[in-house]
Amino acid sequence: MAKVKRSYTQTPMREQEAAVRCHNFDEVAFGYNMEEGQLEASRCLQCKNAPCIENCPVMIDIPGFIKAIEDGDMPKAHEVLSKYTNLPAICGRVCPQEKQCEMVCRLGRSKKFEPVAIGKLERLVADWALEQPIEYKEVTGNKGRVAVIGSGPSGLTTAGDLAKLGYEVIIYEALHAPGGVLTYGIPEFRLPKRIVNKEIERIVAQGVTIETNVVIGKTITMEEIMEEFDACYLSVGAGAPNFMGIPGTSLNGVYSSSEYLTRINLMHGYEFPKYDTPVQRSKNVVVIGGGNVAMDAARSAKRLGADNVSVIYRRSLEELPARIEEYHHSVEEGIEYHWLTNPIEYISDDKGTLTAVKCVKMELGEPDESGRRRPVVIPDSEFIIEADTAIEAIGQGANKVLLDTFPELGTNKWGYVEADPETAATTIPGVFAGGDIVTGAATVILAMGAGKIAAREIDQYIQKVRQEMPV
Amino acid sequence: MFKIIKRKELAPTEFDILVDAPRIAKKAQPGQFVILRIDEAGERIPLTIVDTDAEKGWVRLIFQVIGKSTAQLATVMEGDALIDLVGPLGKPTEIKNYGTVLLVGGGVGIAALFPIVKGLKEAGNRVLTILGAKTSELLILRDECADYSDELILMTDDGSLGEKGLVTKAMEDVFQREDIAFTWAIGPSIMMKFATMTADKYNVPIYVSLNPIMIDGTGMCGGCRVTISNTIKFACVDGPEFLGEEVDWDEFINRMQQYRGEETQSNERYEEQVKQNG
């Protein structure tokens, strides 16, 4: 069969109409069917020294799995993916591919062409795999026992890899459901919890045990963990919300994005009163911040029925840290943007309820350490945005619950755990750490990359200790 | 799953349960709390740990029916189980020998006060305890508190037991005749606010245990934030005990009202369901 001419553009993914989807929490993008997937896969140049592999934090053999899709061999495609990633259905959906694998795609480097839709193809294979029967593995555990603290993407990755290597792995999770940010943070319309649960089930099938409702440092101490296990991996994330601390922060109607999204995602607040946890139904919502979390909060507020949702960001669109795809989705759904704007005060009625956010306009000055131009306040530029709900999505810091009870562990000046990025080793032998608790809030795939390194290093560490043990 | 191994009705709206939770029982200290969830659709609610038995592996919880979740919790019988229970959470009370201490409990707050009474007595303090409630039947844990108190003063709003009046009145009497090193007050927020004002008047330091709205209880959302000496603190990890004089009481009391409408809606819906199902 003669090959059809390579399309310049990516095969589009069908999605819910903006006017429909802004009233529900169902997934926005439907995913490729096999035909669309094969068409997109056929665009791949199958580069010998594929730059896309180098730019994937877990170095997936991208041309390899794409070739299998093109050949219509899904088991093979899944086999290739599984060698590198434990959470492909999640990464295919939430990775910023435009800044990773797809950014360096050779096809995309030529002027006329868009890069291959690697993420969408990964999702196709992963979603196919989730429909296949699960094979449960017997755990022998004779290689050693490892405790993983936190069941977010980093911990799940380490646990999955170590179980594959023959370790007995127990994950301890403080909340009542595993998944970390995948469960409480990223909303249903971007990452359905059905998919998260299925992917976690696959990891459990490898022989991993997950114990929920266990707060390390409180329910079980680090001393006990270190006594009972050969090694442990700290992947507790960066889940403590920052507040700007401007006047009115404690008014009713002011939320951290963490609280707002936890109520909605983990507690099903959008299904109140069928579920018991309420979340405020608002008319006018202001979201502060420009990351993915801000997009998620704004789009969730819209879905809860708010008339007006605006995002205020102190820099401009050019500097927006959120995925551009999410920004476009949010604009289609009617989210408004106030660029170069910063809040300075929350204003309330006499009952202590938020009524407006007082803001100032900013302009961009000299570049700061991060290379981005620093926003500077324009004098006398104050203005007011009416709001009954304000959501601060300005980033998170290290949660101190575990660290406070484990002062022996070295931390840096920001309170994150000191760990070698090459080996995940902390200042204490046998204790490894990775993900957001080391780097500060980053991406799902970087947390997974750290998890993969940790699994390899924990394996080597335990084998070495065992060899050195007197027989 | 966390099995209810014993359940007792203390008053028409107050219940006392022992829950099987060996890990929590082993670690809990006075002043700490748990968060529980009854079932899959349930919300996470915080309750103070009243007592524990590390050997038998149970934790004791006392709650008052004030809304949907507590009404539903009252229907959970011996042998049934809660889907989730996590803890011990929060910082423990600083138990040590202060000398003479005054402990004040109001309403169902007496349940949260009791482990501190016990802890402080066992640490060698001379313990004076004031318990207050609307009526005599709501004056819970009287005997238990008496066991660990050198003096027990009872106050009721209607005078049905002890003296008629508010706990602050009894506090004044004690402060006038005793040299108190430290005071604790646990109860409704308005009572804790006035207890703080009373202790301040006599220059006695006072600890209160704040009970704001919580979701995770592990410091990851800030829903329970309170202003302490003009700084934002999270009651679940920085507290729940704070010095009363440092608390922004008006803000704290106001934040408790946030979901008044939703709470009523949820409760009415539940009552309707109970009626329909008999």
Please explain how this structure is put together.
The complex is a heterodimer of chains A (471) and B (278). Chain A is built from 18 helices and 16 strands. With 471 residues, chain A is of the alpha/beta class. Chain A folds into three domains: 18-130, Fumarate Reductase Iron-sulfur Protein, Chain B, domain 2 (Orthogonal Bundle); 145-239 and 400-468, FAD/NAD(P)-binding domain; 243-394, FAD/NAD(P)-binding domain (3-Layer(bba) Sandwich), CATH 3.50.50.60. In chain A, β11 and β12 form a beta hairpin. Chain A is globular and about 70 Å long. The termini of chain A are far apart. The mean pLDDT of chain A is 93. With 278 residues, chain B is of the alpha/beta class. Chain B has two domains: 2-89, Translation factors (Elongation Factor Tu (Ef-tu), domain 3, Beta Barrel), CATH 2.40.30.10; 100-209, Nucleotide-binding domain of ferredoxin-NADP reductase (FNR) module (Rossmann fold, 3-Layer(aba) Sandwich), CATH 3.40.50.80. Chain B has helices at 22-27, 68-73, 109-122, 142-147, 167-177, 189-201, 235-238, 249-255, 260-276, and strands at 2-11, 14-20, 33-37, 45-48, 51-53, 58-64, 81-82, 84-89, 100-106, 126-133, 151-156, 163-164, 182-186, 206-209, 225-228, 231-234, 241-243. In chain B, strands 12-11-10-9-13-14-17 form a seven-stranded mixed beta sheet, sandwiched between helices. A five-stranded antiparallel beta sheet of chain B has the order 5-6-2-1-7. Chain B has a three-stranded antiparallel beta sheet with strand order 4-3-8. The longest helix of chain B has 17 residues, at 260-276. The radius of gyration of chain B is 18 Å and the shape is globular. The chains are: A alpha/beta (471), B alpha/beta (278). The interface between A and B is large, with 40 and 43 residues.
